[in-house]
Write the structure tokens for this entry.
Amino acid sequence: MKILEVMERANTRDTNLTIAWIKDAIHAIESTQVENLKVNKQNVVKNTLEYDLPAGIISINTVSLLDTEDDNKYKRIRRIIDEPLITEDTNP
Amino acid sequence: MSWDVEKYWFYRKKGRKINLYKLHRTSSPVPDNQGRFADKGDTFIYPDENIENGLRIEYTAFNKPFVSEDPETTSESSLTEVTSPKESSHINLNRMLSLACVDYIKAMMAERSGDIQTKEYYMRAFYKKLADNQSNEKRIFVSNSQPIMSVR
């Protein structure tokens, strides 16, 4: 559907504002539905706890780790909800 | 040399970062030199090895929100993204979700004019269309064969 058709259906003439609202609507759609999936891969570094989330992320679908002993398959790992007892290990 | 990653690796989302933990099993059936069993139990440790491209995050994000071709008639890979959208640009959504966008815009316009009741009405319509779109993708037909000797 063209932006012009959306504007006519919504009875508005402000193009820039309509585009901004469409972006907000797409954000709301991506927050609740899986329409566009992207994949980000990072190196796991020994003794490093924190890894960046990809830029432009709206919601996480899965987090997986490479199983090198099982024919290099990525397997989904589980999420911890509670904070672990050790908040920082200065000598990992 | 990562193995059984689904059993021993865990993550935790913390702000804009992901913390990666490995489960380290420390409980041992072997007593120490004073005859005591280890009482520490399992602990989480930092990753204890380097894994190239080891972490894979699958996520939703903006992907070509505006395109120059009609997404209803053009395949996803052939769509050209429009970085500065105009009135002639297409929204990269199917028809149901595009109609949901119309409801969203109507809701925002109602909110601007202070009409919260109308805004709520259109937001309900917006989420209804999202639900319809999702259920359209999950429609499954189940057929059961009837037993030959069944008595009804």
Summary: Helices of chain A lie at 3-10, 15-32. The mean pLDDT of chain A is 89.
